[in-house]
Amino acid sequence: MSWQDEFRQFFPVTRDKAYANIAYTSPLSPKVADAVAAFFDGITHARSDKPQWLRDADALRVRLARLIGGDPRRLAFTKNTTEGLNTVAQGLAWQDGDNLIVDDQEHPTNALPWLNLRRRGVQVRVAQANAHRYTVDDLWRHVDARTRLIAVSWVQYGTGLRTDIAELGRRCAALGIWLVVDGIQGAGLLRAQVDEWHVDAFACGAHKGLLGPLGVGFLHVSPKLLDALEPLYIGPSGVTTLDKSGLQWQVGVSDADDARRLESGNLNYPGIAGWAGALDLIEGAQPERIEPWVLELSQALGDGLRGLGAQVVSPAGAAMRSTTTALRVADPTAALAHLNQAGVVASVVEYGYVRVSVGAYNNHADVERILRAVRALGV
Ligand SMILES: Cc1ncc(COP(=O)(O)O)c(C=O)c1O
Q1: Which is the closest atom of ligand 1 to the Cα of 23?
Q2: Whose CA is nearest to atom 13 of ligand 1?
């Protein structure tokens, strides 16, 4: 059996549906659900073991850091992407008149934490896309001597546009501008090299391409950014301690170069257990095989849709394309209902487009099914 067929079997939804909605959320594999259930079963039967849970969290750090080309010592668990981005926004020391740059294609998750900084005198500059496309130059046009940070999605949620993070990273590193990347739409599907790309912060949630449960995520930071960040919250963590031996209680940070200082309190251990189950699947399939496969499927889908005369909003070129394809249709709600009827799970994004997005559990038969359903829609 091919690795693709084997991988597909881990996702029961594929037996009766063409699931084309990973940009919204991953379908859950029983491997993930079972791992979460096993965690709760342990607590149910008095097998609570926090030192083991912390070791499990650290083991997952290693696997996630490997997957994105980072360092486990610079990876902090969060509850979601939003928390990771706010940890950066609120943890930096801003000066009145500083500015930062975002683009107008961002999910609210990667806009609100930055807009919140207006209260602290930070100017937020919004780079405008043209027909949902922008290049690094379009972002760079807004840079001046007071630019401190650029925040961008690796892959845009609405159209799947892929940002050239390597080029942006080169430019930001040269000027000492922090590069913050919302990685959730790419991680687990496409290959990231966050350290090589000079990404200062890479924030993700588990529940899309990383195939994990909702409610857990991570923030990976560069050594320089880790050094610059003040934690949002202070509480016990793997490296933050309280010495109560004298009357002058002492807060200790055993290692300032360890991103666990950005964590506080108990982690989402059940989420981490489930996510480890998801990593088993990704590693079993092999990330270097996943990327070409999902890009092959998404290209077949894009080409097929264009062949049908559909209005594809997403870019066609290999450099800007990802696993998401957005279509302009007359009545998106009716179109979605029609696709659902045909066993195709997709979503509608706020621009009023139907969005289809593929994962490694999809195959060419799914692509054909989606194309048949769109043809019947009469686009
Ligand atoms: C680009 C992007 N960022 C972030 C999120 C989710 O953010 P969070 O993990 O904070 O829920 C989504 C989708 O839900 C998204 O598409």
Answers
A1: 16
A2: 24
213 lines ligand 1 (CB under 6 A): no
Element (DSSP H or E) covering residue 281? helix 269-285
Structure confidence by residue, pLDDT tens digits, 310-346: 999 999 999 999 999 999 999 999 999 999 999 999 9
DSSP character for 128?
P
How far apart are the C-alpha atoms of 332 and 202, rounded to whole Å? 32
The CATH number given to 32-282 is: 3.40.640.10
How many angstroms separate the CA atoms of 333 and 338, rounded?
9
Q: What is residue 88's three-state secondary structure?
A: helix
Map tokens 């999809």 to a residue: 362
CATH superfamily for domain 3-27+286-377: Aspartate Aminotransferase, domain 1 (3.90.1150.10)
Pocket test for ligand 1, best of 103, 157, 351 (most atoms within 8 A of CB): 157
Question: What's the pTM?
Answer: 0.98
- Give rounded-to-5 percent helix, strand, coil for the chain: 40, 20, 40
Does residue 217's CB lie within 6 angstroms of at least one atom of ligand 1?
Answer: yes
